[in-house]
Amino acid sequence: DLIYDPSLGGGILDGKQIKAFIPGGVSAPWFGPGELDLGLDQDAVAKAGSMLGSGSVVVMDETTCAVRAAWRISQFFHRESCGQCTPCREGSGWIEKIMRRLEQGLGREEDVELVLDACDNISPGLDWPPKQTTICVLGPSIPSAIVSAVKMFRDEFLVHVKEGGCPM
Fold first, then answer.
1. What is the reported pTM?
2. What is d(CA 103, CA 67) in angstroms, rounded to the nearest whole number?
């Protein structure tokens, strides 16, 4: 209802299909169209593997490049890091560099695993909720978007590598 009800979100522009959505801001794991009927209640969303977090819902339609979306999120986290904790300071920089390389079509196939490894160094196990490894929650929040994007859209990442950039 939040996305499609005319008095709320009003639907996806130009009748496009939903590709993914983030239920609670960029720190939250992504959901696909299969979770559209999930009630926006803390317990239901947590049980499904994400969070409501900031209350910001990000909707991506079928024309959204998942690699670019994840890269932009990595830019945000890298910029927001205060630099005090090594996992966040160094990890956010590495993730942003790898994601930029992938998005710009300069990535290698092994970069897909490398970015997951960098995420694992910030939040070991890549589980949800993330393990607290830094003074604040910013660091462990970084991997959620990247891991979600890779799990849901690995093929898109590989197309960026094989075709030298985004085909969209």
1. 0.93
2. 6
